[in-house]
Write a structure and sequence with these properties.
With 283 residues, this protein is of the alpha+beta class. It has twelve helices and seven strands.
């Protein structure tokens, strides 16, 4: 059955939403900095990452509307993702269905371990690369930093987990299983703006946890929207820096606490199937 997704229908969806849901949505979108195309990447990455998964345009509009995103902004974002090779779309009658391309699935799969892992990375071995003053040496370091999980220490030095990579030409590589991290390095890895963003997200997660119904949700659309916004907020933070063990971060860094709370909330908001979500729209 086609989904009568006009403005009046969307208004009724919002108008019947319980107060606790509106409070949670308000908190998860309070910073007002969501890029709509990025929210859509999260929707596909969390709900439709399999090669056989596809989402109707009606469902995407329903999810983004409940998250406070206007339908025109959603259409523009879908166009951008198609243009950049993230998704492909197919017309089915008067409607459209959308799915991740191979490129989109690869990008989503690459980020998934960082987003959903229950434990943080704690490598046994580290290596340091040091460049000389030559342009060739600096370029080699810069190229490696683009493809590796490196922490820039200064313009000529970077550090990363794991052994020294093979094939170095103009770089000095030093490998060690013991490393001492001074406060200035912790401040470099966990700068104040990012630390403050984690603290704000931690506060938001605690508030959402307090407002979620204790006996669970019976509305798959509400479940999906809350999941997506939680994952989106977490994804925006965790992918802004390399995967680092606690010794590289300030003592009051809230990353570990946020990870634990995100996973607890996702356990309380199990991923609805696309079939169940599409069925709600067809009722």
């Amino acid at each position: 059955m086609a989904f009568p997704l006009g403005p009046a229908y969307i208004w009724r969806m919002k108008d019947t939403a319980p107060d606790w849901f509106e409070t949670c949505i308000g908190q998860l979108t309070a910073n007002g900095t969501q890029r709509v195309w990025s929210v859509l990447v999260t929707i596909f990455g969390d709900l439709a990452q399999s090669g056989s998964d596809q989402i109707s345009g009606a469902l995407i509009t329903a999810l983004t509307s409940l998250a406070g995103i206007k339908s025109e902004a959603t259409r523009v974002a879908l166009h951008r993702l198609r243009k950049e090779g993230w998704i492909e779309s197919t017309r089915v009658g008067r409607n459209s269905v959308h799915r991740l391309t191979d490129f989109g699935r690869d990008q989503s799969a690459a980020a998934a371990p960082r987003i959903y892992a229950r434990d943080t990375n704690n490598p046994d071995t580290w290596h340091v690369l040091i460049a000389s003053v030559s342009e060739r040496s600096r370029k080699e370091l810069s190229d490696l930093m683009l493809i590796g999980d490196y922490i820039p220490v200064n313009p000529s030095t970077a550090i990363a987990p794991g052994p020294v990579p093979d094939g170095l030409e103009d770089l000095l590589g030093i490998e060690s299983s013991a490393i001492s991290v001074p406060d200035w390095m912790r401040d470099l890895c966990g700068p104040e703006p990012l630390k403050a963003a984690y603290e704000q997200f931690w506060t938001t997660l605690q508030l959402v946890e307090r407002h979620l119904p204790a006996n669970g949700l019976d509305d798959p659309l509400q479940t999906a929207v809350l999941r997506v916004l939680i994952v989106h907020g977490w994804r925006r933070l965790i992918l802004r820096h390399p995967s680092l063990p606690p010794t590289f971060l300030p003592a009051d860094w809230k990353g570990a606490e946020c990870r634990q709370k995100v996973l607890q909330l996702l356990d309380r908001l199990p991923r609805p199937s696309l079939a169940s979500l599409e069925a709600v729209l067809g009722d």
